[in-house]
Amino acid sequence: MNSNLESFAATCKSCSRLIWARKVSREAVEKTFALIHKVVSNILANPEDDKYKKIRCENMRVAELLTNVDGAYDLLIHLGFHIRIDETEENSAKVYQWEGDSKYGSEKLEWFLSSTV
Protein backbone atom coordinates (compact mmCIF):
# COMPACT_ATOMS: atom_id res chain seq x y z
CA MET A 1 0.00 0.00 0.00
CA ASN A 2 1.43 3.39 -0.90
CA SER A 3 1.81 6.13 1.71
CA ASN A 4 -1.34 8.04 0.64
CA LEU A 5 -3.49 4.94 1.03
CA GLU A 6 -1.76 4.13 4.32
CA SER A 7 -2.68 7.61 5.55
CA PHE A 8 -6.24 7.08 4.32
CA ALA A 9 -6.44 3.72 6.14
CA ALA A 10 -5.17 5.29 9.38
CA THR A 11 -7.76 8.07 9.10
CA CYS A 12 -10.55 5.54 8.52
CA LYS A 13 -9.46 3.63 11.60
CA SER A 14 -9.53 6.84 13.65
CA CYS A 15 -13.05 7.57 12.42
CA SER A 16 -14.02 4.02 13.28
CA ARG A 17 -12.74 4.45 16.84
CA LEU A 18 -14.90 7.59 17.19
CA ILE A 19 -17.95 5.66 16.03
CA TRP A 20 -17.25 2.80 18.46
CA ALA A 21 -16.62 5.25 21.32
CA ARG A 22 -20.23 6.43 21.30
CA LYS A 23 -22.30 5.68 24.37
CA VAL A 24 -24.75 3.49 22.45
CA SER A 25 -25.36 -0.20 22.05
CA ARG A 26 -23.15 -2.42 19.94
CA GLU A 27 -26.18 -2.96 17.72
CA ALA A 28 -26.42 0.80 17.00
CA VAL A 29 -22.74 0.96 16.04
CA GLU A 30 -23.10 -2.10 13.81
CA LYS A 31 -26.10 -0.47 12.08
CA THR A 32 -23.95 2.58 11.28
CA PHE A 33 -21.25 0.42 9.71
CA ALA A 34 -23.84 -1.73 7.92
CA LEU A 35 -25.37 1.35 6.29
CA ILE A 36 -21.97 2.67 5.16
CA HIS A 37 -21.07 -0.81 3.89
CA LYS A 38 -24.35 -1.03 1.94
CA VAL A 39 -23.86 2.39 0.34
CA VAL A 40 -20.25 1.58 -0.64
CA SER A 41 -21.25 -1.84 -2.00
CA ASN A 42 -24.01 -0.29 -4.10
CA ILE A 43 -21.62 2.27 -5.60
CA LEU A 44 -19.12 -0.41 -6.54
CA ALA A 45 -21.82 -2.72 -7.94
CA ASN A 46 -23.43 0.10 -9.97
CA PRO A 47 -20.61 2.50 -10.90
CA GLU A 48 -22.55 4.20 -13.70
CA ASP A 49 -25.78 4.72 -11.74
CA ASP A 50 -25.76 8.10 -9.98
CA LYS A 51 -28.69 7.23 -7.71
CA TYR A 52 -26.36 5.03 -5.64
CA LYS A 53 -23.88 7.87 -5.23
CA LYS A 54 -26.24 10.07 -3.20
CA ILE A 55 -27.34 9.79 0.40
CA ARG A 56 -30.14 12.15 1.41
CA CYS A 57 -29.08 13.82 4.66
CA GLU A 58 -32.68 14.51 5.74
CA ASN A 59 -33.61 10.82 5.61
CA MET A 60 -34.44 9.82 9.20
CA ARG A 61 -32.33 6.65 9.11
CA VAL A 62 -29.37 8.52 7.59
CA ALA A 63 -29.63 11.22 10.26
CA GLU A 64 -29.76 8.63 13.03
CA LEU A 65 -26.94 6.42 11.73
CA LEU A 66 -24.64 8.84 9.87
CA THR A 67 -25.32 12.56 10.11
CA ASN A 68 -25.61 12.67 13.90
CA VAL A 69 -22.80 10.18 14.59
CA ASP A 70 -19.30 11.33 15.55
CA GLY A 71 -16.83 9.83 13.11
CA ALA A 72 -19.37 8.71 10.50
CA TYR A 73 -19.40 12.04 8.66
CA ASP A 74 -15.58 12.13 8.65
CA LEU A 75 -15.46 8.55 7.38
CA LEU A 76 -17.80 9.43 4.50
CA ILE A 77 -15.66 12.44 3.59
CA HIS A 78 -12.51 10.31 3.53
CA LEU A 79 -14.27 7.74 1.35
CA GLY A 80 -14.91 10.46 -1.24
CA PHE A 81 -18.30 11.91 -0.30
CA HIS A 82 -19.02 15.64 -0.29
CA ILE A 83 -22.03 17.56 1.01
CA ARG A 84 -23.98 19.02 -1.88
CA ILE A 85 -27.36 20.59 -2.50
CA ASP A 86 -29.25 18.34 -4.90
CA GLU A 87 -31.24 20.62 -7.15
CA THR A 88 -32.89 17.63 -8.87
CA GLU A 89 -35.00 17.03 -5.79
CA GLU A 90 -38.39 18.77 -5.60
CA ASN A 91 -37.28 20.84 -2.60
CA SER A 92 -33.51 21.15 -3.00
CA ALA A 93 -32.16 18.55 -0.60
CA LYS A 94 -28.81 18.32 1.14
CA VAL A 95 -27.06 15.08 0.15
CA TYR A 96 -23.79 13.28 0.68
CA GLN A 97 -22.61 12.89 -2.93
CA TRP A 98 -19.89 10.36 -3.74
CA GLU A 99 -17.48 11.99 -6.15
CA GLY A 100 -14.58 9.68 -5.57
CA ASP A 101 -10.99 10.70 -5.60
CA SER A 102 -9.28 11.83 -8.80
CA LYS A 103 -6.19 9.82 -7.95
CA TYR A 104 -7.68 6.68 -6.40
CA GLY A 105 -11.24 6.55 -7.74
CA SER A 106 -13.00 3.59 -6.20
CA GLU A 107 -9.83 2.10 -4.68
CA LYS A 108 -10.67 3.66 -1.31
CA LEU A 109 -14.16 2.13 -1.39
CA GLU A 110 -12.71 -1.27 -2.21
CA TRP A 111 -10.25 -0.93 0.67
CA PHE A 112 -13.09 -0.04 3.04
CA LEU A 113 -15.10 -3.13 2.07
CA SER A 114 -12.10 -5.40 2.50
CA SER A 115 -10.98 -3.88 5.81
CA THR A 116 -12.04 -4.73 9.30
CA VAL A 117 -12.58 -1.06 10.25
The number of distinct helices, counting runs of at least 4 residues, comes to 5
What spatial form do the alpha-carbon principal axes imply?
globular
Helix/strand order, N-terminal first:
HHEHHEEH
Based on secondary structure, the structural category is alpha+beta
The description of the largest β-sheet is: 3 strands, antiparallel
How many beta-strand runs?
Answer: 3
Order the strands across the largest sheet as they lie in space: 1-3-2
Helix percent reads 40-55%
Q: Kindly report the average pLDDT value.
A: 88
Radius of gyration over C-alpha positions, nearest whole angstrom: 14 Å
Low-confidence runs of at least 5 consecutive residues: none
N- to C-terminal distance: 16 Å
Strand content: 5-15%
Summarize the model shown:
It contains five helices and three strands. It is an alpha+beta fold and 117 residues long.
Summarize the SSE layout with pairings.
Blueprint: H1 3-20, H2 26-45, E1 54-56, H3 60-67, H4 72-79, E2 81-86, E3 93-98, H5 107-114
Antiparallel strand pairs: 1-3, 2-3
Helix pairs in contact: 1-4, 2-5
How would you describe this protein?
- The radius of gyration is 14 Å and the shape is globular.
- A three-stranded antiparallel β-sheet has the order 1-3-2.
- The chain has five helices and three strands, in the order ααβααββα.
- The protein is 53% helix and 13% strand.
- The model has no long low-confidence stretch (mean pLDDT 88).
- The protein has helices spanning 3-20, 26-45, 60-67, 72-79, 107-114, and strands at 54-56, 81-86, 93-98.
- A hairpin with a 6-residue loop joins β2 and β3 (93-98).
- It is an alpha+beta fold and 117 residues long.
- α2 (26-45) crosses α5.
- The two termini are 16 Å apart.
